[in-house]
């Protein structure tokens, strides 16, 4: 039985694919190790900052004031701001959630009115059996909005607002 050139080529292609898969596996393993290392650094830095924020020295007071003033601007999500609200206020800072809440409520009302207007247009142009009710549409809109807000930041490093959270 003779081995053809095509058999050798197939064997070489298989070996190349196996090498490529092994390289991908190693790269993924390295990325996991790097991610773990970065997370450990963030945890340790956070623990250190936590100690500084309860300190009494002049330097610690300076850092506390700086943190209370600038950290709220660093946070972009409302849920994150709510998480740190009591800490910032205990340091004499302001999260600004009152102004944000009023603009949030105004935007929510505006979005709900747009959904109602769109639904009204659908009701006038389509048979009633082929569209959602107005309340179903608004409920779905709210669910989608909250899902996007809560999970968007998790891994999207290409997002310009990503801050390693």
Count of strand segments:
0
Q: Main β-sheet: number of strands, strand sense, barrel status? A: none
Distance between the termini: 62 Å
Shape: flat
Walk me through this protein's architecture.
By secondary structure, this protein is mainly alpha-helical. The protein has 5 helices and no strands. Helix 2 runs antiparallel to helix 3 (78-90) and helix 4 (97-125) crosses helix 5 (134-151). The protein is flat and about 85 Å long. The termini are far apart.
In short:
The protein is mostly helical. It contains 5 helices and no strands.
Write a concise keyword list for the protein shown above.
single chain; mainly alpha; 5 helices; 76% helix; 165 residues
Per-chain topology:
Blueprint: H1 5-53, H2 58-74, H3 78-90, H4 97-125, H5 134-151
Helix pairs in contact: 2-3, 4-5
């Amino acid at each position: 039985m003779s081995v053809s050139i095509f058999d050798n080529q197939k064997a070489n292609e298989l070996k190349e694919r196996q090498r490529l898969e092994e390289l991908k596996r190693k790269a993924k393993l390295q990325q996991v190790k790097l991610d773990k290392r970065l997370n450990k650094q963030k945890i340790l830095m956070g623990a250190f900052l936590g100690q500084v924020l309860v300190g009494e020295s002049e330097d610690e007071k300076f850092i506390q004031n700086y943190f209370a003033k600038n950290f709220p601007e660093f946070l972009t999500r409302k849920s994150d701001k709510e998480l740190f609200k009591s800490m910032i206020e205990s340091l004499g800072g302001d999260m600004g959630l009152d102004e944000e809440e009023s603009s949030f409520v105004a935007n929510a009302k505006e979005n709900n009115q747009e959904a109602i207007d769109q639904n009204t247009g659908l009701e006038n142009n389509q048979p009633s059996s082929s569209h959602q009710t107005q309340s179903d549409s608004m409920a779905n809109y709210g669910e989608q909005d909250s899902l996007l807000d809560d999970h968007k930041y998790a891994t999207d490093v290409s997002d310009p607002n990503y801050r390693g959270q």
